[in-house]
Amino acid sequence: MKKYSVPLLLLLGFEAVAVALWLSTGNLFYLLNFSYIGLCIAVGLTLFIQGRRFARRFVQLAVGCYMLLYLGLMCRENMQIEGFWYYLFLGVFEAATIHYAVAKLFGPLFFGRGWCGYACWTAMILDLLPYKRPQGPRKNLGFIRYITFGLSLALVTGLFLARVTNMEAIMFWLFIGGNALYYAVGVFLAIRLKDNRAFCKYVCPITVFLKPMSYFSALRIHCDESLCVHCGKCLRVCPMDVEVNRESRKRKNATECILCYECTKECPMKALR
Predict the structure, then answer these.
(1) What is the pLDDT of residues 192-203, one digit of tens each?
(2) With the C-alpha atoms ordered 221, 234, 3, 100, is the resulting torsion angle positive or negative?
(3) All domains of the chain in start order, with CATH
(4) Is 123 helix (H, G, I), strand (E, B) or coil?
């Protein structure tokens, strides 16, 4: 049972959040919401441990579609960063603010960039493209994410300062338009740079939240450097260009790891775990 400790701990963690939010808000939705997400992640990790190749794809579809189609389109909640700013300015701790607190602000202290690898509905589509392994060196374009981050904040700030009416409807249509734009830019960059994760590396504003916390993540890929023969196989398959053949947290692109574990499958010396 020891090998199943990580999915079990994640499930218990999500259940703790689910129960705490349910009891504190009196809203049964939070119990069902976080229980469902925690169960999907735990099942996916269990399938991965059992060697099922579709494990991560299962989690991406189960969680990504739930958040995009059910929460976003059916419940009309803006789960993008604009929704976070909106509820934050309202001073309301619900919907997008709770989601960001769990998945992108404090959660990464435990599971790092796991959101990007297992739950992001944008990456869910981009990972279907053929360039799963980057075809060239990483570009020096990471500054773009800070521009998109600032633009999202400026947009919602401007709407509040202008005292625009019917903000709920505007937030919903921003969610629709924002997702369409993300997919369009993501597909374009993937094809242009031959890299499915180009959008995640250079454009996604959410990474501004994720990167600092991910540095201290408890769950991470470890490298036994005494076993490593520096064959480079792990580096070639990493979709995020992480220097996984070093144990140090200061390794290149350390906060970019999405815990896909593709590197562990390729390592001939079993130095990665």
Answers:
(1) 999 999 999 999
(2) positive
(3) 78-219 (no CATH), 220-273 (3.30.70.20)
(4) helix
